[in-house]
Input
Amino acid sequence: MAKAPDSVDVAIIGAGPCGLAAAISCQRAGLAATLFDAECVVSTITQYPTYATFFSTAEKLSLGGVPFVTAEAKPSRRDALAYYRAVVSHFDLDVRQYERVAAIEGAQGAFRITSMPRAAAARMTTAQNVIVATGYFGSPNLLGVPGEGLPHVSHRYVEGHHAFAQQVVVVGGGNSAAEAALDLWRSGAKVILTHFGPTFDKKIKPWILPDLNNRIAEGSIAVRWNARVTSIGPDCVELRDTTNDGVVRLEARHVYLLTGYAPNVDLLRAVGVAIDAKTGIPAHNPATLETDVPGVFIAGVVVAGYDANKVFIENGRFHGDKIVARIRGQPAPETPGVSRDLDS
Output
């Protein structure tokens, strides 16, 4: 006889900080919630550079009233990983790690969640409501050029030691590219940064820009503005200079394509949620975070579509309260003020 499917009040897709916060909100309201994640708990933070430090203070990253205590004012990546593990244990959250959700079907009150545990048969879970908090780190913005899949090419930056005394090309004009270029230079790499625009992005962190501009001015870091990557070889990157349509060839032993990420909305689209083609934002009510499919909600960075800098841990951790209020038929709570544009 086939095993009856599990049944929960709320299925939460994504076990990042915002997904965890939503699960805590559900638990406090007496709603049974299960979280699913294709990777580990807070896998997005595992993708941060090894020695990354948050620019938010610890209390602004805390969940459920559990104190986030660190020796320094600004927590590190390692601090955050330890803290969020402790939160999961403290609230005894039902988290199914390494269990990718393949499909969401049905309607409010009777959603069917098909998930794929590693090395196991597909599992079915029924849920009255669904919260999609899938984040965006798993879907980088691809350039679509030859050589993008070569072993020495990466869409994320971890640390600079392995690039010591090597020629490195960093592609991008945002925070990730700027921080990586500086860290690589400090690790002894020979860095060239290239961007399709004439300067850095407008939203680059103001405390990074002076340091980077000084390194460029003194010649420690080279830059190529107004240039688009056309191909990547085993030992070089070819660019097209958009100002004169000329071709530039740069030596490169390591290539970092730090061009950002797109929100993962495949599950939302498949269940019938409309996605704005220009902004990438799922159709939803900002006050309740319910999409145009009743019973399907969004939380975390997916709320902001392509403009990921609008939603981060500091404000995304309150999304669960809005969602639970809607499920319970209560007035939407006000979101506390947030002082930063970025959390890390």
Remarks:
- Residues 338-344 have pLDDT under 50 and may be disordered.
- Residues 6 and 125 are 5 Å apart (CA to CA).
- The first strand starts at residue 6 and ends at 13.
- Helices lie at 17-28, 43-46, 77-91, 175-186, 209-217, 266-271, 313-316, 319-327.
